[in-house]
Specification:
The chain is mainly β. It is built from 3 helices and 17 strands. Strands 2, 3, 4, 14, 15, 16 and 17 form a 7-stranded mixed beta sheet that branches. It has a 6-stranded mixed beta sheet with strand order 5-6-9-10-8-7.
Length: 277
């Protein structure tokens, strides 16, 4: 199977400053060479839940297409919990908000973090109680994937495009105009492949192979940033979670491109690698 997207690995790349982090829904092991970090807290338990965002600010971060890849700033969240005997210390919701319990919330407030917004959340269901939620608004720019030559970057059926946005990395898996599957990850959705049609094939784990690349010149110094799958976290914040044992994390290395970084941004690297007491 020939994939039509590749990762640009040029430039001066360094590891150890930023990490790609995911909070698992259960005790599953990480894929694509990731490792586990942190530990299981006393209140770690199983539970199904659904969340409802009640107040949200949308941030459109694509510099070319304003409608692409909007980020969300969470102001208030309501979480509906079903059949939960216990609650996770750290919960990932379906749309990638992060719910935490009061003890973790209080410790985070004492840290000098950048890019972390703490907002209230309401919990409804069988276990009714109030929990804080911290929402992510920091900005990191993972290096875009590049469309391979000799493949049209438009819908094979109607010509609408681009299928893959090279400005922000947004993927139009289903055409916004005609509704057909214009981009497919065959490894997870083989049934969507249309024989004989020039669909755009991509590997969903491409950015994790060898480590996601973040453009340092576009980093705003935040300790916690949203990524397409999970979050990007500084070394000092990851170390805080590891030592605090608030929950299980899946961790992958991130490669930071230091080309064209300003003196101020170089200082952010030192801050990101200096651990909290």
């Amino acid at each position: 199977m020939k994939f039509h997207l590749k990762l640009d690995e040029s430039g001066e790349l360094q590891k150890g400053t930023l990490f790609h982090v995911s909070i698992p829904f259960d005790f599953e092991l990480p894929e694509s060479g990731g490792r586990t970090a942190g530990g299981v807290g006393d209140a770690w338990g199983e539970g199904d839940y659904a969340d409802v965002i009640t107040k949200t600010t949308w941030l459109h971060t694509c510099r070319t297409y304003p409608e692409h890849y909007p980020d969300q700033l969470y102001n208030e969240i309501t979480v509906d919990v079903f059949h939960a005997k216990h609650l996770f210390e750290l919960i990932r919701t379906d749309d990638q908000a992060i719910i935490c319990r009061q003890a973790l919330h209080d410790r985070l407030k004492k840290l000098t973090l950048k890019g972390v917004n703490l907002a209230p959340a309401k919990l409804i269901g069988e276990n009714r109680r109030k929990l804080p939620v911290f929402a992510v608004y920091g900005r990191a720019v993972p290096r875009r994937l590049e469309t391979v030559v000799d493949h049209p970057n438009v819908c094979f059926k109607c010509g609408n495009g681009p299928v893959y946005c090279e400005s922000c990395g947004s993927m139009m898996a289903r055409c916004r105009k005609c509704g057909c599957r214009s981009a497919v990850a065959p490894s997870i959705d083989a049934e969507a492949v249309v024989a004989g049609k020039k669909q755009l094939f991509f590997d969903p784990n491409l950015s994790e192979q060898g480590g996601m690349i973040v453009e340092g010149r576009l980093w705003d110094g935040s300790d916690l940033m949203r990524a397409r799958h999970g979050w990007i976290m500084t070394k000092r914040l990851l170390n805080f979670f590891e030592r605090s044992h608030f929950g299980l994390l899946h961790v992958w290395d991130v490669r930071l491109c230091t080309d064209y970084m300003t003196e101020e941004q170089q200082g952010w690297i030192k801050r990101a690698e200096t651990l909290f007491d």
